[in-house]
Specification:
alpha+beta; Maf protein; 5 helices; globular
């Protein structure tokens, strides 16, 4: 099966930069929704990261007849009963800035130290094919919620996500380094390996 191009179901330019860096050696054109001329808002009403990624990928593949990758990712904070979880983007409202969201997490963990601040980024990527087949990959990046925002790299919750192993925040990692460690980077590489196998068939 020759895959000529893939639509990645996002309009987020930061995310597209990460995706293109990881997928470039696949030899396939990777387009964002906007570049593919797709203007559709898929309602992600699943209860897990897997369900939401599959809903988005299959719907856009059905509409376009193309191979579509979609991710659903979020932040799980153990002390907050794994919030914000699948609601990470909607946490405190779509239009609320991440600066406010990040500060809210810091405030809610006041008095907690070290392991009590454990958290992880989760990413599930679904690949949907025009013939109805779907495959998924899942990966995580473990860390803690920091005590302040740090770093200009990354987006969303990156500036408040501390990596004890590297003694820095996700928002301080250079993009290439982040792609090696991040939940999305790992999940993308897993799905890329599956796509490579299909290319060879």
């Amino acid at each position: 099966m020759m895959i000529k191009r893939i639509i990645f179901a996002t309009g987020n330019e930061g995310k597209m930069r990460e995706v293109r860096m990881i997928m470039e050696d696949l030899g396939v054109e990777v387009l964002s929704l906007k570049e593919a001329g797709v203007a559709v808002d898929v309602e992600e009403n699943g209860t897990t990261f897997e369900e939401n990624a599959v809903i988005k990928a299959t719907e856009i593949s059905r509409l376009t007849g193309e191979v579509v990758l979609a991710d659903d990712s979020g932040l799980e904070v153990d002390a907050l009963n794994k919030e914000p979880g699948i609601h990470s983007a909607r946490y405190m409202g779509y239009d609320t800035s991440y600066h406010i969201k990040n500060q809210s997490l810091i405030d809610r963990l006041e008095g907690k130290e070290g392991e009590e601040r454990s958290a992880r980024f989760v990413c599930v990527i679904a690949a949907a094919f025009p013939d109805g087949r779907v495959m998924t990959s899942r990966a995580t990046m473990e860390g803690q919620i920091g005590y302040e925002e740090r770093g200009e790299n990354g987006f969303g919750y990156d500036p408040v996500f501390y990596l004890p192993e590297y003694q820095c925040y996700s928002g301080e990692l250079p993009l290439e380094e982040k792609n090696k460690l991040s939940h999305r980077g790992k999940a993308l590489r897993l799905i890329k390996e599956e796509l490579k196998k299909l290319q060879e068939v």
